[in-house]
Amino acid sequence: MKQLFRGGIHPNDGKALSRGGTPVPMPAPSRVIIPMSQHIGAPCSPLVKVGDTVKLGQKIGDGEGVCSPVHASVSGTVAAVEQMPIPGGRKAVCVVIENDGKDTPDTAIQPRKSHKELSPAELAGIVREAGICGMGGAAYPTNSKILSTAGKTETLLINACECEPYITSDDMVMCTWPEKVIMGARIVADVIGAKHTVIAVEDNKPEAIEALKAKAEGQEDIEIRALPTRYPQGAKKQLILAVTGREVAPGARTGALFNVTTIYSIYRAVYEGLPITEKVVTVTGEGANAPKNVIVRIGTPLEEVLNFAGGVKEETCKVVCGGPMMGVAQGDLSVPVVKGTNALLCLVNPNPPAADPTCIRCGKCMEACPMGLQPLNLYRYVNSGNKEELQRLNMEDCMECGCCAYVCPGHLPLVETFKAGKKLLKEVKR
Amino acid sequence: MNLTVTSAPHIRSGDSTQRTMLDVLIALIPALIAGVVLFGMRALVLTVISAAGCVVAELLVNLVMRKKPTVGDLSAVVTGVLLAFSLPASCPYWVVLVGDAFAIIVVKGLMGGLGQNVFNPALGGRAIIMLFWPATITRYTTEAVPAFNFGAVDIVSSSTPLQTMARPALPDASLLDMFLGKIGGCIGEVCTLALLIGLVYLLWRKVISWRIPVAYIGAVAVLTLIFNKGDDAFVWMLYSVMGGGVMLGAIFMATDYVTSPAMPAAQLVYGLGCGVLTVIIRYFGIFPEGVTYAILIMNAFAWALDKAVPVKRFGVAKGGAGK
């Protein structure tokens, strides 16, 4: 099939490593570390203090404005509330809970029998109280998106591309619980008033496509759309282009676009009354002994997840939270799984950027850039601090997908450089 | 377990600068074989000496600039081979070494090394040889040249097709001889067939795009067709395209990444410019051939041409003003 957006790459997807079976539930750890900031927006303030008893699913952190509350992923006692390292090398306030092993449930959120009567504000309320934010990695609070798109949406678009190589957690969610995904889509479509729903899946997931199609049968307004596999098709603007044929203007809202696991989580919140306390995480990579998908409690330290999933090989030299294209390499494996963690990728080849980078101007980066940028010139202008040229060449459109760096024969540190370049431009605007 | 922490992406395509240069060298093998068949082992020895000269010069530059050796990227080897290819097999060995030194030290090294040079190093080396030892590039033979002769080489000089065409008259060589390279000329430029095989390889490996070679050769073809000096315009055009260094220049020199534009539209204009200048220099310059100076002049325009291409922003209609 012909590709549906410009540029991009088609690396070995590595998904066969971890695909298949059903996600394996990991027993809750003896201690969980719940960061108060797992989303884009204002961090939560802890609602509990050291010594408090908490129940499974109890809200333990909340805040004002664009914020997504966090919940206890085990029942037990609060052992600490303090600054701790979180994935990505930063620190945040975390609530540490000693697990009492009882999983005593909190009953603050009651399951609904039907979603037909829900208003957008009511659904947004449920979604907010369940702590749902974009599960594709962006972690933008989902309730805000429901409110901003309600009544204004023709087509509800569900992103099930999972275009990052190696990751299969969305795939496994679709294969294991297709009826919940379809029902989740039904809820959102009905509440925001979308006439048409497109679930976009890349064609390297035939089982997921089949499973969803079977469950969507008879629902004329829900379409399962297979797209030719190509990274970064799951990026918002590329997906909208691939599905609708339209380019989203710079700075424009992307409308009703939800990740498939987010949709699944909305189903769980509405019909099962469950907040986000666990997550399907793909443990994979050439360095993983037994790649698989694991259902992990939020707050479980990464090393415990790796051990449960069969451990890692001696030659593993890099552990990445997320996929190989945009994931974040971890230096510390004591940090916890958070809502946005979809994979733990264990790599045996570090693939560092060149120590002495030389651009030969081959132009392959321009061909690969899905935004039509000129990475080779941006690289030059960031390094020379030429802000005018960076603006003229639309530096701000870079979404750091990494296609340019992937193809670069000189192994230039392009993505790092562009992050620095965007900071440079923000300073100008201030 | 020692964990490496670097920025994403964590996988790469496996492409490298070295691999790219290796592809260029592979693409030059047919032309080298043709050169050896036509001009004897001296063609090979001259090519090897030139490549070695460039590598030594590059090491010298690295040493003086206190940088790690960069010869592993093979770009110096490419420069050495291309410079040898643009010289007749009879060129004295020491002359090519002077050209190598100038190419690597002055044209490339002093500009900051690979990626920073404005002009194509091999053509810069050739230009300096033309300046000081024009006789070495104006005397050609169609016979094998003795390899073990380290000074000026005695050859039975015969005129090249381009020298004949400058009179103007049609060359004695048939069009088939032109295509196969059974003519006087430089080591790597005579055999059109071998160069086209190299072009196909480079296109297949996606090392270069079709734009520069097609625009270059196309411009030469159209101009010599219109402003022909023979009885048959088409025949004159074919001799013009296959004679001299147009093929070698259009496929291997004008496409040098560092010294040519990267934007597709700019590449077309650049190729056209090379073709137009080649014909102008051939028709009005003092040398019968114009490829060297045509490409060197267009090298100077590469950056400006890239910058002149309008920026098309994602989500903004053509000609739109942005947000």
Describe the structure.
The complex is a heterodimer of chains A (430) and B (323). Chain A has helices at residues 120-129, 142-149, 169-176, 178-192, 206-216, 236-244, 260-272, 302-308, 364-368, 375-384, 387-392, 403-407, 414-429, and strands spanning 24-25, 31-35, 45-46, 53-54, 59-62, 70-71, 76-85, 91-99, 155-160, 196-202, 222-227, 257-259, 278-284, 292-297, 318-321, 328-330, 343-347. By secondary structure, chain A is an alpha/beta fold. Among the domains of chain A are: 110-272, Rossmann fold (3-Layer(aba) Sandwich); 364-429, no CATH class. A 6-stranded mixed β-sheet of chain A has the order 1-14-13-17-15-16, sandwiched between helices. In chain A, strands 2-8-7-4 form a 4-stranded antiparallel β-sheet, with no helix packed on it. In chain A, strands 11-10-9-12 form a 4-stranded parallel β-sheet, with helices on both faces. In chain A, strand 7 (76-85) and strand 8 (91-99) form a beta hairpin. The radius of gyration of chain A is 21 Å and the shape is globular. The mean pLDDT of chain A is 93. Chain B is mainly α and 323 residues long. Chain B has one domain: Orthogonal Bundle (Ammonium transporter fold). Helix content of chain B is 57%, strand content 0%. In chain B, helix 9 (211-226) runs antiparallel to helix 11. The longest helix of chain B is centred in the first third of the chain and has 24 residues, at 41-64. Chain B is globular. The model of chain B has no long low-confidence stretch (mean pLDDT 93).
| Class derived from helix and strand content of chain A | alpha/beta
The parts of chain B where pLDDT drops under 50 for at least 5 residues are none
CATH class of the domain at 110-272 in chain A, please? Alpha Beta
CATH homologous superfamily (4th level) name of the domain at 110-272 in chain A: NADH-ubiquinone oxidoreductase 51kDa subunit
Rounded mean pLDDT of chain B is: 93
Q: Helix count of chain B?
A: 13
List the helices and strands of chain A in order.
Answer: EEEEEEEEHHEHHEHEHEHEEHEEEHHHHH
Shape of chain B: globular
